[in-house]
Amino acid sequence: MFKFIKKYSKYFNLYTYILIGFVIWMLFFDAHSLLFHHELNSDINELEYQKEHYKNEIAKDEKAIKELSTEEGVERTARETYYMKKPNEDIFIIEYEDSIAKQKQNE
């Protein structure tokens, strides 16, 4: 590199060296460097992904709330999730072998 500078030193002067130093400083060492902007852009992308995820979760929850706002929806949820029953009624729970195998794998 020094050979390069010596060879072309007639084209370089103090202002050129200052400009090169300034550009290097701004690109890599300053608080607003390219590296810092790259980190911020990756954070922005991750936050946008989380935003979409939470929007989908909110839509799913709103759908569940709408379903539970009716008497039929509450009854169906109580029967399917909590195995509740009406008086003088019998409930039969049918489990398939593949669902039992999945439960064993999760435990």
Automatic annotation (TrEMBL):
InterPro entries referenced in this protein's UniProt entry, alphabetically: FtsL/DivIC (IPR007060)
Transmembrane intervals: 12-29
Coiled-coil regions listed: 37-71
Keywords, ordered alphabetically: Coiled coil, Membrane, Transmembrane, Transmembrane helix
Pfam families reported for this sequence: DivIC
Protein name: Septum formation initiator
